[in-house]
Amino acid sequence: LDSNITDADGAGIFNFGNINIQNTTLSRNVSTTGAGAAICSAPGSMNLLSNSTISGNNAANGGGGLYSIGTSLSITNCTFTNNQSVFGGGIWLASFGNTIKNTIIADNSAPSQVDIYAQDEVISSQGYNIIGDTVGSMWVPATGDILGSSLTSTISPGLYPLQDNGGPTCTHSFDCSSIANNAGTDSGTPASDQRGLPTVGAKDIGAYEAQFVVPNPDLGADISVCSGEDAILSAGTPSDSANWYDIHGTLLSSYTMDYSYSVNETDTIIVELYTTNGGDCVGFDTTIVNEQIPIQPTITQNGWLTSSTAQEYQWILNGDSIPAATTDSLYPTQAGHYQIAVVDTNGCWSISDSLYVEIVGISDEFNISFLVYPNPGKGLFNILLYGAGAETCSLTVLDLTGRVIFSQSINYSKQQVLDLQHLPAGNYLLQIENSTHRMVKKVVIHK
Distance between CA atoms of 189 and 279, rounded to whole angstroms? Predict the structure, then answer.
C-alpha cells in the first residue's frame, strides 16, 4: 500500500475489526489532518503485524506509521522507519496488551516522542527490538533489546533506502555494520523474512533478513618461527579477498588468502577478510609470530671434538658434511676446519664457528711400537704394544666417522686378541691412549 492520501485517519488502512498484516509494505501514505497515516486502528479491534515494513508515512495528528487506541497489538519482525508526525513519529499507542518482538522502530521523526508515544506502560517487550529513541515510550527493556534515548544517545540500525531487494514488496536492507545484523532471535519469529528468504546465520532484527555471511578468518594459535625462515599464514575461510597488516597498521599484502614472509622479528599479524556479496562484510583475526633466535653451538676439543647440547647434529669438514657423523662427538682423523651444524632446543638450525684441527704424529712422542696383524683381516686381530712406558692403556675401536664401537684396556709387552668378527667389512680405527698420549692405526676387515 503506497502513496495513499486522506484528510482523515488511516490513509493506508483504517481498521474497525480484526486484521492480520503479513509480508506487506505500507509506504508514503499521508493523513493531512488525521492520525495513523499507514495504519489507524479503532477501539475494540485486534491487529497482528509480522514481517512487514512501515516506512515514509506522514500523519498530521500522531502516529506517522501506526496509531492505535483501545486495540491489542502483536508486532513481530517488522520495520518502522522514516515515518513522521507531531508526536509518536513511528507509533502512537493508547491501549494495553501490546507486544513487540524482533522489530525495528528507529529513525522516525517528530517534535517529541520521536519513535514511540505510549500512554502508561502499555507495551510488553518480547525482546530483540531496536528502538532508536525510547523517550515517551514507557519502554521496559527485555532480553536482546537494543535501546537508544535522546536523553543520552539515540541509535540507528543504518538502514538503506526503501527499494526492491527481491520479493514482491520493497524493503530496507543493511550491511554487515548494522546493529540489526545477526542480533535477533529465531524463537517465536517467522522462519523467513518479508521477501520469503530464510535466516542466514543468526537471525536479523526487522522485516529484512540479510543473505550474506560474515567472514570468520582463523589464523590458529600463535606460532614460533626460526629467524630467517618463512612464516606461512592462511586465513582459512574462503572469501572474496583478504588484506594482511602488521600491528602498526602497515599493509603487508592484499587480495590473497595466504601470506608468507621471512621472519626477522617477533610481530603481530592481522588478517582482514572481507566479502562483497551485498554486505561489505569484514572479519578479523590476529596471530603472533614469535621469532626464535638460533642458539649457536660450540665445539670443545680434548682429543675428541664435542658439541654443545642440541637435538640433532651434523659434523662438517672443510665445508662438506661428514657422512654418518651425526652424534654430539667426533674423533678427527684428518687435519682441517671442523664445524658442527645442529638443530637447537627451539627446533632451529645453527652452525658453529670453524675450528682448525691439526693431526700430530703421536707415535714418535709415545716412543712405542703398536703392531696389529693380520691387517687386512677377517676380523680377528693380534695386538702387541711394546716399548717405553709399562702402564696400562685404553684401546678404542671407532668407525671412520669417529663413532665409538667399543673400548677396553690393553697392557704393554703382552700380545692380545681383538675380536671384530661381528663387524661388517670396512675400514676402522684403533686408538691407543694413556693419560698423556694417543696414537691411531687403521685396520681393514674383509669378509
Answer: 23
Query: DSSP of 284-326, one letter per residue?
Result: EEEEEEEEEPP----EEEESEEEEPS-SEEEEEETTEEPTT--
164 contact partners, CB below 8 Å, separation of at least 6: 170
- My answer on whether omega of the bond before 376 falls inside 30° of 0, hence cis, is yes
- Kindly tell me the sign of the dihedral angle through the C-alpha atoms of 127, 129, 135, 138: negative
> Where are the strands (E) in 197-280, listed by range?
223-226, 230-234, 241-246, 251-254, 258-262, 267-275
Q: How much is the pLDDT for 274? A: 65
| Residue 59 bridge partners (DSSP) | 31
Strand order in the sheet with 426-433: 404-410, 393-399, 426-433, 438-445
Q: Which three cell numbers stand for residue 76?
A: 513481530
Indicate whether 365 pLDDT > 50: no
- Could you tell me the three cell numbers for 101? 518482538
pLDDT tens for each residue of 299-340: 998 878 999 999 999 999 999 999 888 989 888 878 899 999
Q: Do 370 and 439 meet the contact criterion of CB atoms below 8 Å apart?
A: yes
Taking residues 99-117, what's their average pLDDT? Answer: 95
Angle at 46 between CA 45 and CA 48, to 5 degrees: 150
110 has a pLDDT exceeding 90:
yes
Any idea what the Cα angle at residue 402 is, between residues 399 and 403, rounded to 5°? 70
Answer yes or no: are the C-beta atoms of 114 and 138 closer than 8 Å.
no
Is the confidence at residue 127, as pLDDT, over 90?
yes
Whether residue 253 has pLDDT greater than 80:
yes
High-pLDDT (> 90) share of the chain, %: 47
| Three-state secondary structure string covering 130-159 | EECCCCCCCCCCCCCCEECCCCCCCCCCCC
Using an 8 Å Cβ cutoff, are 337 and 321 in contact? no
Neighbours of 261 (CB within 10 A): 17
Q: CA nearest 338: which of 315, 371, 358, 306?
A: 315
Distance CA 84, CA 93 (A): 15
Cα–Cα distance measured from residue 330 to residue 100, given in angstroms and rounded to the nearest whole number:
83
Q: Residue 360 carries which DSSP code?
A: -
Query: How far apart, in whole angstroms, are the C-alpha atoms of residue 432 and residue 396?
Result: 7
Read off the pTM.
0.62
Counting DSSP H helices and E strands in the chain, the numbers are 1, 41
